[in-house]
Design goal:
Keywords: Oxidoreductase. This protein is 39% helix and 19% strand. The protein is an alpha/beta fold and 242 residues long. Strands 1-2-3-4-5-6-7-8 form an 8-stranded parallel barrel. Helix 5 links the parallel strand 6 and strand 7. Helix 6 runs antiparallel to helix 7. The radius of gyration is 17 Å and the shape is globular. It starts with a strand and ends with a helix.
């Protein structure tokens, strides 16, 4: 199985587990130059950096070109293109708009998948967006989930590889908080209706039950650490994943 994870532009890279693919966030209000620079730092340490390109946080074509150029110059060969969770700061309000520029030529492209929906878009809008983006995508990274059935259903409809979003060990209060933020409706219900199972999920082996249920459909898992890099590192090592 292949595991990837996310870091921020200011994450201490000496704390990273030995995974290959490391995604770098560009959060609302963040500076794309910092994300590009972090990509270069990761290349120097032998990782494959995957910078985020949130469309609504990019002002215009000039800034997009500069961001892509900076990433290419430091050795990045892959990107995750997303809409982003903020109001547009410029002319782009969706990921398809920056994909259609053609500026990502030569870069492996990941796009976002939402098996349980999104708080920012209706299910109909999500379905159309996926149809529009699919021709540009080499693979899909999903929101993080706890309920396996929506994942399996989602994978069955895709024509490109799906990297399933999971979390590292987290408190149940934190799981519910982040599930609300990303709109993981089924996972919130899963937590509330399977409280005893949810408690089991707090152990270091917590993502293993979900992995076991979907690994026959995909071998790729993307870890959302939510700041718990130390705990994620420990979990990966204890389970022999790295």
């Amino acid at each position: 199985m292949n595991f990837s994870l996310e870091v921020g532009p200011h994450t201490d890279l000496d704390t990273l587990p030995p995974v290959k693919d490391v995604y770098i966030t560009m959060l609302p209000g963040g500076d794309y130059k910092e994300t590009a620079q972090k990509s270069g730092d990761l290349v120097k340490k032998g990782f494959n950096p995957v910078p985020h390109f949130p469309a609504r946080s990019i002002a215009d074509e000039t800034q997009l070109k500069d961001y892509i150029s900076r990433c290419k110059d430091v050795g990045a060969k892959q990107a995750l293109v997303i809409g982003g969770s903020r109001d547009p700061i410029g002319k782009f309000d969706s990921s398809i708009q920056i994909l259609e520029t053609g500026f990502f030529d030569g870069i492996k492209i990941g796009i976002a998948g939402h098996p349980e929906g999104s708080p920012d878009m209706s299910d109909t809008e999500l379905e159309k967006a996926m149809i529009d983006k699919k021709p540009y995508a080499d693979y899909i990274v999903t929101q993080w989930l706890l309920d396996s059935q929506p994942i399996v259903d989602f994978i069955s409809k895709q024509s490109v590889p799906v990297h399933v979003g999971i979390t590292g060990p987290m408190k149940i209060s934190s799981l519910i908080k982040f599930a609300n933020i990303v709109g993981a409706k089924n996972s919130i219900n899963f937590l509330k209706s399977n409280f005893s199972k949810a408690l089991d999920l707090l152990k270091p082996k917590d993502p293993n039950e979900l992995i076991g249920k979907v690994k026959e459909f995909t071998g790729n898992f993307h870890i959302y650490t939510f700041g718990g890099l130390k705990e994620t590192n420990k979990w990966l090592k204890e389970n022999g994943y790295v």
